[in-house]
């Protein structure tokens, strides 16, 4: 076998090939091996793995049976390292009968008895048969719910039963008396979430479950399921059991996803557990501020998909070339309250220390580790704005001067403020210190600085996470490995095989696969979901593919980087990019190589799973079919259905005969309008907002009375927690909208004392205005022109998640509020009546 063939084979994943074993060579071994060795001959001498028989597995029971490793070539020995289904074949090589036939990738290394530098990674695919009694039932022809119910991520193993469990008004959440204190908080949370999902509110009971009940129990009989695994048994009672609390919690997420699809759940038995320990999202809050409310909702959304890691990138800066090549005016932000250096904390949005403590506490409740990241010594302009003396005059003020002793003092003080004392701000076990993209010429100084910061953080008992940079910054200065985990993001900065050899556990975060940079024109605006589903797992780091089960890869993370400061991106625009990616990547990080269906089927079915109980960041409204809105209104003349009872100030009146003669109202069948005499008067609607795609249609009569006051008023029509639509945008007289500090206007002034028909359509690309059936203005395809030497243009984000919660803030009348959850075409809008 030639070296080129071996190399190609090394980048291939373990083949899921039922019934046969497929041997492949791992990339780590390729790097370590002596190229003069006859690798092909070595492979021929590696024997077959022997699995215990079904009878042996049955006899072993909960003790498991031993996996027999292949024979080794003379002068070599095999070391078993693990599998991608550890509850079935453990890291110690014990094999347990699964509940369903399971394809397992084994990972082991061929070691030279004399040369410790040689390690050849090998993988082997084996099929482990189910427990004997299950196989007998299948052979006997008993009818099963053979297809596992759909959830994201998919259940690892499913044995179908007969019939269905039905959640009803009589259902209870039942806890064993021995675990009342431990599980009562989870039961109360689940009670509320079931009510939010189904409208039913099961009572909580201590004791034994009955028909239609939900039973939660911590059970140590399956310790190999680990911290996050659980068992779901569905009969007339739905039982979730797990050896650890987090696994039990994940089981409740599965239950909620099942219930939001249907109150009837197929009977059967599921065993579920993650392939990878770390399953995360990195969110850049440095270059775009995200509210604490948003972060708290993201914790819940991530948790709903069993994602367990949210890395909050707390500081960063824009690019100098977009700010007149002036470091002083280049945008930079540090998002956490700081007392040692008060000028450090961003004035345009930051989190108090207590808010951040509470965010971490919420994360613990929902099984999500909050990892705070303070990025040094590059991406550090916020620090040098606060303390200019520590900025590098040679490499730019976004680089810290690593030769200035004051730099160590400042950085140490910043970390110390959040780590020390009886009530530290960083309460979790992991702190990220950044360390990416520093000047290559300063490799030795960079390595020394990195090692010192690791030490400062570890002095407070924390584990350290950092961005891989040690291939880029090669040198002789040692950087400690113990207690340090690395995000490997670009192989030119940290070659993953080299990092594995050094001993760093890796979180696969490859930029060419998993970086979202909204509207930047590079990396991804939206991730390539089908490609990720079909080709990526955390074992893929850039162009390097590790073997499934390789213990050096502990998980994966995708990232949102808000590089283009001020481009108009909103929290909801980010969610529009994150949520579909989250659904796909939760499957890949939990399930690894496992795919229960092809991407087309998955892409269709994922649309029926929401963000989680009580969440609607995307502003979904009404019914969707295959992810598309309907051709008929989801709300037709919404205001006509609202009673005036209990509403103060605003009143409902019949349309006059004169109004009915107005051309835009002729033929509409509208009978009444709401009259607003005072800008303080409001109507509260039942929906906060509607997200992309949508069409909002209404008839408006703007009174001239507002202009007679002599005061400039915005004349708000619609508003929500996130946005407002106004008749007089910033005194321009133009119809417009505002969200997250961005004020946008249509080139249109709503006339006074005249009925007009206004239609607004919105997509994730922009917003359009139609008046009296005609296209009037379009906020699409506009660009920000920079004055850098390249005359760079970046797309301006002019989207609007349309606010609906509050109607009012103007003088006039409104009627015929109609809403579609699709963007109507121009011809359809012209035909509206």
How many discrete domains?
A: 4
Strand content: 25-35%
Q: Nearest-angstrom radius of gyration?
A: 30 Å
* CATH fold annotation of the largest domain: TIM Barrel
Distance from first to last alpha carbon:
73 Å
Output mean pLDDT. Answer: 91
GO molecular function: beta-N-acetylhexosaminidase activity
Domain Beta-hexosaminidase bacterial type N-terminal: 149-273
Protein name: Hexosaminidase
Keywords: Glycosidase, Hydrolase, Signal
How would you concisely characterize the structure shown here?
The protein has 833 residues and is of the alpha/beta class.
Keyword list:
19 helices, eight-stranded parallel barrel, TIM Barrel, signal, single chain, alpha/beta, Beta_hexosaminidase_sua/sub, beta-N-acetylhexosaminidase activity, glycosidase, 23% helix, Chitobiase, domain 2, seven-stranded mixed β-sheet, 833 residues, disordered N terminus
Structural overview:
This protein is an alpha/beta fold. The chain has four domains: 3-131, no CATH class; 143-272, Chitobiase/beta-hexosaminidase domain 2-like (Chitobiase, domain 2, 2-Layer Sandwich); 278-608, Alpha-Beta Barrel (TIM Barrel), CATH 3.20.20; 638-830, Sandwich (Jelly Rolls), CATH 2.60.120. Helices cover 23% and strands 26% of the residues. The chain has 19 helices and 45 strands. An eight-stranded parallel beta barrel has the order 14-15-18-21-22-23-24-28, surrounded by four helices. A seven-stranded mixed β-sheet has the order 7-13-11-12-10-8-9, with helices on one face. The chain has a seven-stranded antiparallel β-sheet with strand order 29-30-45-33-38-39-40. The chain is globular, with a radius of gyration of 30 Å. The protein starts with a helix and ends with a helix. Residues 1-35 and 137-141 have low confidence and may be disordered. Keywords: Glycosidase, Hydrolase, Signal. Residues 1-32 form the signal peptide. This is Hexosaminidase.
């Amino acid at each position: 076998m030639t070296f080129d063939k071996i190399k190609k084979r090394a980048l291939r994943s373990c083949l899921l090939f039922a019934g046969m074993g497929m041997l492949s060579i791992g990339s780590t071994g390729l790097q370590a091996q002596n190229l003069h060795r006859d690798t092909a001959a070595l492979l021929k001498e590696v024997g077959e793995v022997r699995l215990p028989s079904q009878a042996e597995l049955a006899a072993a029971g909960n003790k498991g049976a031993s996996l027999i490793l292949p024979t080794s070539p003379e002068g070599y020995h095999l070391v078993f390292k693990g599998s991608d289904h550890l509850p079935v074949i453990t890291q110690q090589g014990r094999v347990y009968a699964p509940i369903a036939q399971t394809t397992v990738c084994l990972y082991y290394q061929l070691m030279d008895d004399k040369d410790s530098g040689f390690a050849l990674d090998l993988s082997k695919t084996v099929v482990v048969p189910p427990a004997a009694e299950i196989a007998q039932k299948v052979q006997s022809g008993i009818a099963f719910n053979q297809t596992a119910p759909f959830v994201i991520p998919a259940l690892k193993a499913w044995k179908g039963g007969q019939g269905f469990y039905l959640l009803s008004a009589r259902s209870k959440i039942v806890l064993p008396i021995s675990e009342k204190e431990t599980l009562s908080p989870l039961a109360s949370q689940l009670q509320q979430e079931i009510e939010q999902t189904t409208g039913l509110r099961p009572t909580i009971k201590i004791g034994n479950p009955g028909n239609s009940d939900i039973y939660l129990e911590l059970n140590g009989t399956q310790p190999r399921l680990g911290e996050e695994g659980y068992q779901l048994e569905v009969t007339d009672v739905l039982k979730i059991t797990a050896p650890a609390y987090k696994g039990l919690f994940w089981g409740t997420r599965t239950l909620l996803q099942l219930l939001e699809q249907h109150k009837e759940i197929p009977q059967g038995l599921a065993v579920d557990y993650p392939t990878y320990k770390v399953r995360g999202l990195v969110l850049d809050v440095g270059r775009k501020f995200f509210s604490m409310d948003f972060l708290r909702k993201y914790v819940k959304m991530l948790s709903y998909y069993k994602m367990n890691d949210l890395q909050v990138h707390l500081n960063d800066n824009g690019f100098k070339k977009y700010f007149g090549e002036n470091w002083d005016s280049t945008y930079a932000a540090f998002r956490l309250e700081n007392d040692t250096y008060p000028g450090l904390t961003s004035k345009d949005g930051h989190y108090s220390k207590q808010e951040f403590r509470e965010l971490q506490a919420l994360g613990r409740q929902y099984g999500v580790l909050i990892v705070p990241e303070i990025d040094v010594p590059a991406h550090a302009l916020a620090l040098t704005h606060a303390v200019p003396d520590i900025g590098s005059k040679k490499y730019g003020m976004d680089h810290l001067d690593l030769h200035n002793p004051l730099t160590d003092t400042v950085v140490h003080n910043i970390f110390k403020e959040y780590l020390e004392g009886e009530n530290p701000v960083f309460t979790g076990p992991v702190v990220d210190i950044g360390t990416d993209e520093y000047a290559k010429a300063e490799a030795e100084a960079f390595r020394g600085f990195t090692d010192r910061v690791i030490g400062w953080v570890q002095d407070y008992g924390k584990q350290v996470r950092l961005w891989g940079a040690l291939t880029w910054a090669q040198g002789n200065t040692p950087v400690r490995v113990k207690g340090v985990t690395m995000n490997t993001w670009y192989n030119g900065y940290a070659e993953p095989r080299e990092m594995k050899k050094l001993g760093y556990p890796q979180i696969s975060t490859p930029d060419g696969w998993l970086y979202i940079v909204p509207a930047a024109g590079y990396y991804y605006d939206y991730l390539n979901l089908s490609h990720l589903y079909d080709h990526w797992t955390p074992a893929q780091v850039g162009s390097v593919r590790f073997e499934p089960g390789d213990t050096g890869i502990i998980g994966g993370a995708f990232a949102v980087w808000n590089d283009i400061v001020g481009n108009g991106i909103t929290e909801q625009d980010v969610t529009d990019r994150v949520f579909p990616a989250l659904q796909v990547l939760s499957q890949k990080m939990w399930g690894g190589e496992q795919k229960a269906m092809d991407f087309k089927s998955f892409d269709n079915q994922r649309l029926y799973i929401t963000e989680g109980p009580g969440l609607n960041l995307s502003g979904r409204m009404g019914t969707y079919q295959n992810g598309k809105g309907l051709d008929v209104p989801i709300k037709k003349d919404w205001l006509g259905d609202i009673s005036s009872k209990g509403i103060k100030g605003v009143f409902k009146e019949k349309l006059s005969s004169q109004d009915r003669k107005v051309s835009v109202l002729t033929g509409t069948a509208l009978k009444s309008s709401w009259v607003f005499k005072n800008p303080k008067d409001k109507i509260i609607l039942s929906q906060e907002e509607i997200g992309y795609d949508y069409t909002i249609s209404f008839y408006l009569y703007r009174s001239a009375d507002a202009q007679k006051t002599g005061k400039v008023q915005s004349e708000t029509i619609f508003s929500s927690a996130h946005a407002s639509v106004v008749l007089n945008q910033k005194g321009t007289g133009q119809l417009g909208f505002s969200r997250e500090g961005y004020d946008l206007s249509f080139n249109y002034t709503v006339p006074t004392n005249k009925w007009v028909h206004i239609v607004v359509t919105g997509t994730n690309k922009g917003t359009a205005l139609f008046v009296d059936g005609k296209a009037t203005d379009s906020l699409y395809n506009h660009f920000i022109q920079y004055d850098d030497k390249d005359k760079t243009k970046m797309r301006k984000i002019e989207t609007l998640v349309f606010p609906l919660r509050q109607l009012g803030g103007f003088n006039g009348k409104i009627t015929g509020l109609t809403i579609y959850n699709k963007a109507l075409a121009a011809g359809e809008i012209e035909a509206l009546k």
